[in-house]
Specification:
It is built from one helix and 25 strands. By secondary structure, it is mainly beta. It folds into four domains: 31 residues, no CATH class; 107 residues, Immunoglobulins (Immunoglobulin-like); 106 residues, Immunoglobulin-like (Sandwich); 91 residues, Immunoglobulin-like, CATH 2.60.40.10. A five-stranded mixed β-sheet has the order 1-8-7-3-5, with no helix packed on it. Strands 9, 11, 13, 14 and 15 form a five-stranded antiparallel β-sheet that branches. Strands 10-17-16-12 form a four-stranded mixed β-sheet, with no helix packed on it. The chain is elongated and about 90 Å long.
Length: 350
């Protein structure tokens, strides 16, 4: 006798053959097999976990376990979990064959130690057979600095060449913690720097809008204009005994009373017109009285005699003009009381 059930199975026919003792029931073709989706293992809402704000103590990891359940009516195997952001977390799981209703878990450890602001991790599930849509596990946290420095004034860190007085730059050192993990006691912290930075008063205690315990202490660094113009940097170190808690670079600039932009005029092939903007750094109005250039190829347009805090000069390369030298300078004279003469280097690119 022909094996009709086997033939029907091979041909994919929706038939069932039952004998008196088979224990089977007649197949109902109206009952559809539920399609596989990403929710077959985990609902979309459960696939994202947010720790919220946490203190970024060095070496701190946060762990969350995602439960997976096979909601299908057939077996599915968890083959792999791909770490999409290995910089931010690690994954623990076991390759598992899940029969309908079986459960397993995937653990994500999120690295928040030493991080700042938003920290996020993504992991993608790989199954056999594959699901029609990617299943992503997203783990997030807001890393709150255990200790940080913020500027407490909006003053420009700019001093004029030759200024005899120092300009204080004001900052705050802020330590953040919880009732269980109190923040550092800033009254016991020492400041070390070559600019003689120092504390301005004792620490203050408070709670922020997230209910963190906050210690704040003001400090200042006196900035000096001694030396030539240019950018200055000094590192300030905060430490208790021999333990360094934080470092901060204090930066400022020493400028001429009238500062040109750009500081060097570069003449490039194919470009004929150039601008130099002169800005008074002490807000004193001025005008340019004369302009000269030791390169014959550079021509200067007439200057305005109106006193302003900002002046714009226009230069152009003379048609057919050529110099044996590729480097020279533009010399300006002004009526500014502290900037009678300004020199701007010129470089002609051949």
């Amino acid at each position: 006798m022909t094996n009709l059930p086997r033939i029907a199975a091979i041909l994919g026919l929706g038939l069932a053959f039952c004998g008196p003792n088979s224990g089977c029931s007649v197949h109902d073709e109206s009952v559809a097999v539920p399609p596989a989706t990403s929710a077959s293992l985990i609902e979309s809402e459960a696939a994202t976990y947010q720790f919220g704000p946490v203190i970024n103590k060095p070496g701190r990891w946060l762990s969350h376990t995602y439960p997976l359940v096979n909601h299908l009516d057939r077996d599915i195997e968890l083959v792999d979990v791909i770490n999409k952001k290995p910089c931010c977390g690690v994954i623990n799981f076991k390759r598992t064959l899940l029969m309908p209703g079986d459960r397993t878990e995937v653990e994500i450890k999120l690295a928040v130690g030493g991080r700042f602001a938003s920290v996020s991790h993504q992991a993608e599930l790989v199954t056999d057979p594959p699901l029609p849509e990617p299943v992503m596990l997203r783990t997030e946290a807001e890393a709150v600095p255990e200790i940080r420095v913020v500027e407490s004034d909006s003053n420009k860190r700019v001093l004029l060449v030759g200024a005899t007085h120092t300009q204080p730059a004001r900052y705050q050192l802020i330590a953040t913690g919880t009732a269980q993990e109190p923040p550092d006691d800033l009254d016991g912290v020492e400041i070390k720097s070559s600019v003689e930075a120092g504390w301005v008063g004792p620490q203050r205690k408070s709670r922020d809008d997230r209910d963190f315990v906050v210690h704040t202490r003001d400090w200042a660094a006196p900035l000096s204009a001694v030396g030539e113009r240019g950018s200055r940097t000094d590192q300030v170190v905060f430490q208790r005994a021999n333990q360094v808690l934080s470092r901060w670079n204090v930066t400022w600039e020493v400028v001429l009373p009238v500062e040109p932009t750009p500081k060097m005029l570069v003449i490039q092939p194919g470009t004929t017109r150039y601008r130099i903007v002169l800005r008074s750094q002490d807000a004193k109005a001025f005008h340019v009285e004369s302009v000269s250039c030791d390169l014959a190829a550079i021509e200067v347009q007439p200057c305005t005699a109106t006193d302003k805090a900002v002046q714009t000069l226009v230069f152009q390369e003379k048609e057919g003009g050529r110099d044996d030298n590729s480097r020279g300078k533009i010399t300006l004279t002004t009526n500014h009381p502290d900037a009678a003469t300004i020199e701007i280097p010129v470089h002609i690119l051949r």
